[in-house]
Amino acid sequence: MGVPLAMETLSERSAFMRESLQKSQTITDNMVSILGSFDHRLSALETAMRPTQIRTHSIRRAHENIDKTLKAAEVILAQFDLSRQAEAKILRGPHEDLESYLEAVDQLRSNIKFFSGNKSFKSSDGVLNHANNLLAKAILKLEEEFKQLLMSYSKPVEPDRLFDCLPTSARHPPQSPGQNDDQGGKTNQSDPSLENAVYTPPALIPPRILPLLHDLAQQMVQAGYQQQLLKIYRDTRATVLEMSLRKLGVEKLSKDDVQKMQWEVLEAKIGNWIHFMRIAVKTLFAGERKISDQIFEGMDSLRTACFAEVTKESVAMLLSFGEAIAKSKRSPEKLFVLLDMYEIMRELQSEIETIFEGKACTEMRESALSLTKRLAQTAQETFGDFEEAVEKDATKTAVLDGTVHPLTSYVINYVKFLFDYQSTLKQLFREFDSDESNNQLASVTIRIMQALQTNLDGKSKQYKDPALTQLFLMNNIHYMVRSVRRSEAKDLLGDDWVQIHRRIVQQHANQYKRVAWGKILQSLSAQGMTSSGGSGGMGGDGGGSSSGVSRAVVKDKFKAFNLQFEELHLRQSQWTVPDSELRESLRLAVAEVLLPAYRSFIKRFGPLIESGKNPQKYIRYTPEDLDRMLGEFFEGKTWSEPKR
Question: How far is CA 395 from the centre of its chain?
Answer without folding.
Answer: 37
